[in-house]
Amino acid sequence: MDYGLRERVVLITGGARGIGFEAARLFAAEGAKLALADINVAAADAAAGRLIDLGAKAIGIGADITSSAQCAEMLARVEDGLGPLSVVVNSAAVLDDKTFLESSPADWKRTVDVCLYGAMNVLHTALPGMVERKFGRVVCMASDSAKLGQARLSYYAAAKAGVIALVKSVAQEVGGAGVTLNVVSPGATNTELRQEREAGLRASMGEEKYARRVRSVLKMYPTGRIGEPKDIANAILFLSSASAGWVTGQVLSVNGGFTMT
Ligand SMILES: NC(=O)c1ccc[n+]([C@@H]2O[C@H](COP(=O)([O-])OP(=O)(O)OC[C@H]3O[C@@H](n4cnc5c(N)ncnc54)[C@H](O)[C@@H]3O)[C@@H](O)[C@H]2O)c1
Question: Could you give the domains of the chain?
Answer without folding.
Answer: 9-188+228-254 (3.40.50.720), 191-226 (no CATH)
